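This week, think about what follows.
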Amino acid sequence: MVLRLKDFIKKIRACKTAAEERALIARESASIRTALKDSVSSSHRHHHVAKLLYMYMLGYPAHFGQMECVKLVASSRFADKRLGYLGIMLLLDEHSETLTLVTNSLKNDLNHPNMYVVGMALVTLANVASEAMARDLAPEVEKLLGSSNSLIRKKAALCAVRILKRASDLHDIFMPRARSLLSERNHGALLAGLSLLELLCAQQPATLNEFRKAVPSLVKALKQLITTGYSPEHDVSGITDPFLQVKLLRVLRMLGAGDATATEAMADVLAQVATTMGGSKNVGNAVLYETVRTVLAIDADSTLRVLAINILGRFLAHKDNNVRYAALTTLLATVQVDGNAVLRHRTTVLECLRDPDVSIRRRALELASALTVASNVRVMVRELLAFLDDADADLRPTVVAHICTAADKYAPNQRWHLDTLVRVMKVAGAHVRDETVAQFVRLVTNAPELQAYVVRKLYALLKTDHSQAGLVRAGIWVIGEYGDLLVQPGAAPAPDDAEDDDNGTTDALRSVALDEDGPNEAEVVALLERVLSAANSTVVTQLAITALMKLAARFHEPAVVQAIQSLLARYQTSMVLELQQRSVEYLHMLELDPELRRGLWECMPVMDLAPGEKGKYAGGGNARAVGPVVAAAPANAPSDPMSLLMDLAMPTDTTSVAPTSGDLPLLESLGTSTAPAPRTTSGAPVVADLMADLLAMSGAAPAAEPKMGAAKAAVDPLDLLMGGPVPAIPPMPTGGSAPSPASASPAPPAATLPALFGDLAHTVMAPAVRARVAAHRPPWSPPRHPPARRSADTTCRTSRTSRHTCSCT
């Protein structure tokens, strides 16, 4: 006895466990397989396929019933055809080989006199048609588009959409029929015809001009929908057929884009829809949203655009999150077209930043960033900074990027720009990119009048919190570079209250007091010691020990220099090679003459700003000066520390030296580069004579420049650094006058120079400086230390203190 579908469903629902259900399905599947192998009657086949389809909907395999569905489709009974077409749509897809057996049955049923059989064939073809089947049956579908039955025309139009998606080159077949569907009075047939027209225009843009002739009829249909009375058949929440209205608006948007005639024809009806459509329910909001999109897509006049943007402004205050999100997305796409109209809703957009929904906050953040211009940058950045305080961790990097971008583009002055970046690093320093820190450094070097203020501000912030990585890196660099300004009494400018109240950033920093007298040298070193103790990054440690070395060259208290030396000595045995190397080199620098050390650690040159940053502030402030400018530098002074080291002993030079970005290890860590102005000299005396200072051990003043010019011109400073021969340098007489060439004393033995410079050549210089010196090294090797400088039981000082192999052995 064949188990009927109703009884089978009862047994399935009676199963108490999944295992019991699986066992029942397995038994029934085996029974159906056995029955289908034998010749069964049409009624029994119907029951078996029905049970197989129910199993398939429960998630169990039923592929062995595909051929039975094909047999049911070939049956003459309507019930069998209906079940067979249902099984084909469920069990087969366009890639199934069995589908080719259904093509003939579909062709026969498309020409069937029964409209319901034709309808089932069209629905099946629209769901599972492959490319080959679409090409074979396209003529029958095109013929059905002209049927007298509106139901057949609607289903044929939808089937034509499927055929065109599979074979887009068949559009010529359906073009005439598609134009005739635009005059349909039946809503279903018109809706399907509009879908076909939309696909034809998307696949073949050349057909737009042909369909634009139908714009008046489409406008008329839309006007009838919004002016007609209550129609129970099409009414949805008090609005007549909103689905058809939305589809009409989409097609009008496609036809009106780029065409002034079509835009003028539809402008009145669009204004009518925008003003009469209610927005209290979601159905009305859908129609209004499509109206707004249509107005913004066509070349409408400014009045209609403002009306559309005001509708989006009302959507921003809606209680539905989906409506607000759609409004924010549309406004974001409209900013580039009509930004002034969108700016009127700036307050509402900023309120969306506090929305509980994270997707709305994220979209509102993008829109607020797009609305930021030079006229409102202070207000917008203030709101973004307030949002940054409470922003989620995953959203903070995006907020930081938007704030920094707005500050870079529209900063009114350097003070506001620097304060904004400081505030960002204070609140979300862990999310600040390295490029932002490097840009902050460039801005500080280009603002000499603000350097004292910035170093005081960063020092005060680091005293209270050094957990933000970006703030720590920027603060260490600034303190190390401008530490002398930090300890000078009264060096920081008084805050501009008017500016602070208006810029929206320094008000949050007011709690950090700036001491007019400034800290003393010991307090600055103590702060860097605390930063070193809490450092969890090698980069921060490298910056900190480099800053300590800079301070050692700028501070004068012996106890402070001794404390710095103790801090640097901690890293002589560090497992990090870079830290160990820097520590050893810096400790050797501390043993040098203070003047030489000060020359090696001269203030950084002004870094070049990006092309968009040069001269963008109304107040200027981009004067190029080296470090904290106290007095004007000579015109021919070298512009970088390497040039000072290489050229102090030379009287004149007519070449230009452009240092590389690797001259200082700090810049390697920060990822920035320096590009100082080309150094040109024209015969004026240099600032100092380094070699004369080192060799005049008796303290006598150096010879007058005109007398020494010829001798110094023959001196190669690299030869001196590498231990080369030294020319005769006449000593100064007691009276201070320049000696004559005849009375010049003989040169000191060359063996004394390696004693002065041997360690310097190996360990004093930073890696980038050593590489540059090695590039200029003469072809001969440095001479070895003479035996007179060593004892039998004494190890070389260089090999004892550095990882480099000394050349004296």
Notes: The chain is about 60% helix and 0% strand. The mean pLDDT is 77. The longest strand covers residues 235-236. The longest helix spans residues 18-37.
